[in-house]
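Predict structure. Input: Contractile injection system tube protein N-terminal domain-containing protein, 163 residues.
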Amino acid sequence: MPEEQMIKATLEIYKPPIGSQQGPGSRLGDPIKFQFNPAELSLVKETSWARHSSRLAPNASVPEFLGSHPGVLTMTVVLDKSKSNDESVDERVGRLLTCCRPEGNSLSNNQASPPWVRFSWGHCETARFYAVMRRLAVRFTRFSSDGHPLRAVCELTLEEIGE
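Output follows.
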């Protein structure tokens, strides 16, 4: 029986839409490939409801749906310099950091927006949506003898963008 190949998690980075454009722009470079898949994903989706007092309701009034809040996906990923031809840990962390500041074209069009991202991993469709990076925390945990980062533990928080 053939051995199954492990699917690795990736993060794609896209230009944000400009003007009346719907959806993301073109992809910015190759996806960031994670050598180690996250141990867990946390997805939170909230809704807003309003309850109005009603003297005629025997137990409670019927809530009024006010809308959905964006989904928030959090995960911890490890970036590692395992092969000599891999993109360096520092370069990959730098690419993640670009997701936390306005993309160049959006600034020049007076529509400041960070790049859009999309996390992808196998068949986990509920976690596959366009988002902005709301938070990035990086801990460098291993270095070469000359001080180059060899491993980083990154905590990512992605906030869904409604389309």
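The chain has one domain: 10-17+24-46+67-160.
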